[in-house]
Amino acid sequence: MTVENNLAAFCIGGATAYFLCLAYHILKGQGKSQVRLHKLLGYIFIYWAASNAKDLLLTFPGTYSQPMLDVVTLCDGWSALTFLVLLYELTMPGWTTLRRLALTALPFVGFTVAYLLHPAHELISVYTRFLCLFGLTVMVTGYNRSRRYLSYIRNNYSNIDEIDISWIGYVYLIAFVSQLLWFVTAAASDQLADCLYYLFEIMMWQMVYVHCRTLKQVVPDNDDSEAAPAATGSPERTYAFAGELERIISEEKLYRNPNLSLADLTARLGTNRTYLSQYFTNVKRMTFYDYVNAMRIEKESVPLLESHPEYTLEYIARESGFNSLSTFRRAFKKFTGKTPGNYRCDN
Asked: Is the dihedral of CA 267, 269, 270, 275 positive or negative?
């Protein structure tokens, strides 16, 4: 075996072992307490372990041939379904069902059967173009769905630390690079590029695993029990609770509740959730999440920083209603232009 073959075999073996270990940890280590998303990830990792293991065949002498590469390309294409399941399940919890998965897999089944009946390289070329189109569709729809999901949680929750999926943008970037490497290796038959592909593959799924390990999902509720009244005229005059909302949040210091939600305010004001959400959008010109954080910074954080230099930032963050120091720092810099530490030094 050549040096390239040895290096490729090492990378493939390492990637296979990595996915097997993660799958075992998720599916066996958590027992009956595992959540739906974790179980799906476990199955995805089993698939990737098997997919990587089959690549070991290419490291044996005489097997790195065009027919074998065509078979590998045909099998690798099925991995696109794992990206679809991940992106859709993150943004629409409960989306993945056997029926939906079977319907989505029909084109892959068709290409696989067609190649088994007529193993021609030209068919693989058509299949590769289909994968490009399918991958682009998944990326675009997944991106749009993630934006809607992020908009939903920011319009309904003041604490999004455990439900935030903004990290998915980095997954998109790494996935894009890894897929480019995949196409390069499929076209140029470069085993060194293969090694880079496995490294990016591990980086991407490790990021997914780390963030999903503590992720708590919420199911977006797009169906209000009553329709929100249409806004007419000046925004301030069309919302009956205008003024009252600001008063109770400020006087009762509701913003100090780290888990304050739009539903809490809806019940308190006796209004409609969509109507209240429209108020933050049309009048306050910000999401509910940003509004509450701005109140925390203005009413609690800034006064505490100015009057109590002995207080730690962790204490100030907690007293202001933030669940974590990192969220406090991001919010403080967003609304003041400075970090809490710099603000304290300047004042």
From this structure: negative
Tokens of 62: 């005489």
Q: Which tens digits make up the pLDDT trace of 279-310?
A: 999 899 999 999 999 999 999 999 999 999 99
**Taken in order 172, 177, 181, 184, is the CA torsion positive or negative?**
positive
* Token digits of residue 184: 């390069």
| Torsion angles phi and psi, residue 225, rounded to 5 | -70, -25
- What is the Cα gyration radius of the chain? 26
- Residue 20, classified by CB atoms within 10 Å of its CB into exposed (0-12), middle (13-18) or buried (19+), is middle
Q: Model pTM greater than 0.90?
A: no
Question: What distance in Å separates the CA atoms of residue 332 and residue 315, rounded to the nearest whole number?
Answer: 14
Residues of the chain with pLDDT under 70: 1-5, 29-34, 61-64, 185-192, 222-237
CA distance 53 to 198: 12
Distance CA 269, CA 272 (A): 9
Q: Which residues pair with 157 in a beta bridge?
A: 261
Q: How many helices (H) and strands (E) does the chain have?
A: 17, 0
